[in-house]
Amino acid sequence: MASSTPPAHCTLTATKPYHNHHLQHPHNRHRHHPTSSHHHQSWRPPQVSLHNQASHAAACPGAPPPAVARPAFPCLSDFSGCRSTRSVSKMHFGRPRSTTNRYSAAAEEALQLVLSRGCEVSNIDNILVDFQPKLRASDDYTFLLRELGNRGDWVNAMRCFQFAITHEKRRNEKGKLASSMISTLGRLGKADLAKHVFDVAVNEGYGNTVYAYSALISAYAKSGYCDEAIGVFRSMKGSGLKPNLVTYNALIDACGKGGADYKKASEIFNDMLKNGVLPDRITYNSLLAVCSGAGLWEVAKSLFDEMVHRQIDQDIYTYNTLLDAASSGGHVDVAFEIMAKMAAKSIFPNEVTYSTMIRGCAKVGKMDRALNLFNEMKLAGIKLDRVSYNTLLAIYASLGRFDEAFAVGKEMESMGIKKDVVTYNALLDGFGKQGMYDKVKELFAEMKHGNLYPNLLTYSALISGYCKGGLYKEATEAYTEFKRQGLKADVVFYSNLIDALCKKGLVESCALLLDEMMSDGIQPNVVTYNSIINAFGQSGNVDCVEAQVESSNLLTYTDGKMAVKEDDRIIEVFKQLACGKPGNVKHEQRARKDFRCVLGVFRKMHQMEIKPNVVTFSAILNACSRCNSFEEASLLLEELRLFDNQVYGVAHGLLMGHNEHTWSQALSLFDEVKRMGSSTASAFYNALTDMLWHFGQKRGAQLVVLEGKRREVWENTWTQSCLDLHLMSSGAARAMVHTWLLNIRSTLYEGHELPKLLSILTGWGKHSKVVGDGALKRAIEALLVSIGAPFEVAKCNIGRFISTGAVVAAWLRESGTLKVLVLQDDRSFSHSTSTRFDLLPNLQPLPLL
DNA sequence: CTAGGGTTAG
């Protein structure tokens, strides 16, 4: 039964959440207001590359094959970094264009006039009429509309464009104006309007140029509409135009934005080579960006090497993008190495470099390192900019260190950078996560008072925060306001909300929301489903799971076209929750339902072609731990083997205490997991060990934990004097305690002294997501008591158990100690993993002193 | 035509 081949799509390998991402129009996601500080970013001097590009063309005649073999395609078979849904539209206002002053003084004067007179449309018309005799050809007008665009004022830019077009007779000049307008709109995230300008231009006979097509492709790229960009590219070829380097670069860029599709990017790259267009530095930088977004660190690395081989200069963009690929892919150490080598190539880290690295550190939980980088940055004389400040503030806010977060806010303002929506969103999210709702309300009011417009993310943080705290009335109010603003929910909004409700055990409400989102045209993604599966794997808080989950739409929903869309279902759900629902189900009944539901949800994912990933796997393993019995857990895994025999075969095999074959499969699975970020990997190891421990497979648990340690899944867990368990689940931590003590015992056996002080850290409060959750500490305390280990809670740190080397040594020498330390399986099997003694610490009897 | 920031599962 378990030997069938898994369906092709159904591997453990991660899918990108944005695979089903509902793309929104950028102006919905980013509500920019004319007063928003985004429009007033400081102007930066143009970046000048010292490298000579012409030399490459000379060095690379024809289209040489890649000097370095890149992984064959499709090489998307790992998990790394694929959980990033990095933003689709990043608008960089105020970034200078490389204008070479082709405009006249009159144009400059007109611009100042327009700017000084404000945004009234009639103003610009009058000014343009006044200046018309003095303004020359397309150059002056393109200058004007670009400058207006740089200030976010697309309305006046359009006005200016329209005026210029009607006063220009030459087709060529009209074409230039159109391309300019399209690219300006593109940079402002107005892809639809850009398309409109393009269509008009083509219809009127001046838009059929490589420039206009390239500009439109770029506009789509900026908004993350990769498929649309490719469509434009095709129609361009169809109308007989030859794409040039810029066209190709823009198209590759598009692949990096709308979900980082390296396969597409690579196809475009090949097409480019085939058509004799030589890639340049920007081509490679864009390819690197695709890798970074797609989590393809290995590919990024070979592209980087390929640049060297092709003698294409590397610049600060190259390095920053490479660093991003490394650090967001979990290779922070590698990123640091690369960063250290930059100066030798005369490419000096800038604020982008630092904020990239800082974010990379923060992402993998290395907060100390992240904070250190800020100091380093200041020492290097690099000024923190808006992004750096917001990043720093967000780190503190996410850690619940609000005093420090506010201090950063103060410093930022003292540097003349006002708090923006991003700043407030970070604070709101932080306070919401800590359940400090008064602060949330206060900040939300303050934000509005400061004329900042809450956006989708603001409301998302508010609403899910309130839901987590059971403040459904507040959630309803926030949601109503959200709708009133004309904002539209997206998949992340829903996933976040669903997760919040799942965490409260309200699975049935989640089912309703799932319906709602789909009837709204938003496809759930793997994150959405993982949240739901996680709900089944959680121990506490499941106080209201309804009996009829099985019959709910959670499992029976079949397609996206739900009947009529009544009023808002979300409000309905909140209302029901607000008045409190009946229906606590008896414990056993619930558990049995859960077990079936997990399968049901998994099948649903399969049916909807949403690829499960490691997080799904971890969630399922956690759900296994919540199963009523060993039999249920093994049945669940057995069933899941039909979908993915490798992954679930390993879990099943380990649970059953199977033999060497299972173990070798497990090892290759571990290898695969290792290629993901450490937090993903540790979650996996935690879940797996927990399940094994829970069902009494303690030796198996120990082996897994040892593998995890060997692969450095949990950072610096283990020295002679200190065992740090703060990143571990309770099962993993307990298996680790045994193993560590046995290891210390071997040290003793070998005749070494123990350190003076021994400590075990459980990270109470400090590292938990919610301050004060001491579950791990309690589990470890109970374990230490039960095995009679002579540790006690440290006075200064209640999450730390300490003892002296001498006391522990004496205890280890006691005759009964070895027996309690050596893990025994609760169940005996014929082919047990216990054959793998070689991996375990030395179990020789200790010589008496 | 190229680089960093705010949200989701573990």
Quick summary:
The chain is mostly helical. Helix content is 58%, strand content 2%. Belongs to the PPR family. P subfamily.
Q: How widely separated are the two ends?
A: 57 Å
Measured on Cα atoms, how large is the radius of gyration? 30 Å
Q: Please, what is the average pLDDT?
A: 79
**Taking strands numbered 1, 2, ... along the chain, how are they ordered across the largest sheet?**
1-2-4-3
- Strand count: 4
Share in helix: 55-70%
Biggest sheet descriptor: 4 strands, mixed
Number of helices: 40
Strand content: under 5%
* Derived structural class: mainly alpha
Shape: elongated
Q: Could you name the ranges where pLDDT drops below 50 across 5 or more consecutive residues? A: 1-99, 541-566, 582-589, 765-771, 830-835
Describe the structure.
This protein has 849 residues and is an all-alpha fold. The protein has a domain at 1-22 and 490-643. The protein has 40 helices and four strands. It has a four-stranded mixed sheet. Helix 13 packs antiparallel against helix 14 and helix 27 runs antiparallel to helix 30 (587-607). The chain is elongated, with a radius of gyration of 30 Å. The structure holds one DNA strand of 10 nucleotides. Keywords: Repeat. Belongs to the PPR family. P subfamily.
